[in-house]
Amino acid sequence: MKPLLSTLRVYLQRTFIVLLVAAAVSTLIPLCLSAAVSKGNAVKASATPLPLNCAPGTPPFSDIDSDGIIDGCEQTLAEKYAPIVYHSSDESNLPTNVNWFLPKTSLWFYDDNCTPDLHSRMIISPTQVQVLGWWYRGGCGASDTVYSNGTRSNRKQRTFYLSDVAGSFRIGSLDSRDWTTYHHTYLNNLGGVTIQYWRFYAYNDAANNHGGDWEGIHLVLDSNLQPAQVGFLGHSSIDYTPPSALQWEGTHPRIYSEGGGHASHPSGGGIFARGCSGEPSSINPGNPCTFIRQETWTNGQVRWCSNSHVSFCNGAVTPTGTLLNVGSKFQPMNGQLFILYSGIWGSPGTFFETSGYWGPAFNETGMGSDGFITAWCAGIVNVDVGRECYPAARSR
Prior knowledge:
Layout: H1 2-38, H2 71-81, E1 84-88, E2 95-96, H3 98-101, E3 106-111, E4 118-124, E5 135-139, E6 142-147, E7 151-153, E8 158-162, E9 181-187, E10 193-204, E11 210-221, E12 227-233, E13 238-241, E14 248-249, E15 252-257, E16 264-265, E17 272-274, E18 280-282, E19 291-295, E20 301-303, E21 317-319, E22 323-325, E23 344-345, E24 357-358, H4 374-377, H5 385-388, E25 393-395
């Protein structure tokens, strides 16, 4: 056996050397191309374009999500245009974040074609990694296999779900440092960049109550990296609005959020709030009784409403949460693997509308009949659309 082991050892050593050389070459080629471009030398037209770097000298200098934008540039743009969210003083479910939510829930599989309905628990208090990699095959007349990261249900009838949190947690977090704003940033078909800003809530306490609520806006920049339009996500479509129709504080747009339902709007008129005397009102930036003002950029502040009729409206000024880059679906950043989870965030209800909601990368807003996830990929370029913008499979 010794000659065989010796031969195997030599083979492995040579293989390792070959792999080292290949890795070095793969690293040197982009560096050489970059140097050639910086010196003004000709580069073949077939060469991969250098990633957009709108903020030279700002780390990180990588392009981890391989979307053609240097990560430091993505964060710089996201910070520059991060919205100011005006939450209603009538809010019953404050924002929070994924890592706050997961220890308070469990991952289940659901199929309403069983009698009684099938609810099979997979894991209690999962981490982001632990909501991935689950599958359920067949059962109750079905022959397909449903995956927790890849299969998106059409009607929330055969799907994985994260159960509703207990009633005491449905208010969300009273610590504004937990109010994470997630951003997904990519090159768009205007020759510019689109920045999606997403907010997460543990519960939606509007007319159609349901667990796990995701709300977002799309800020679309043109080729000069200036705002061209802002998209507001509803349940069925994205409503695009010119920047002139919004109120701005410098480079930051004001976004007004409905209490309980959390839908975003370009103005506060018509969004119910509680006035200083507890009377019905609407969100009014001039009346601090009617809103909680959240600056979503790094080191931003939250100014709580001043209203004796609402328990948390104490007029305090507290820190905001993180502005966090989630990367792309197949190359997540900053450990945000939750974007791969394709089930619903909340328990199945009696009706579609009273069941949990999908996360950003599998969101229903404007979804094409072929499964194209418009809410995640509107106007996107420079990606593998099949992998990034469509679920791997679909179920009932």
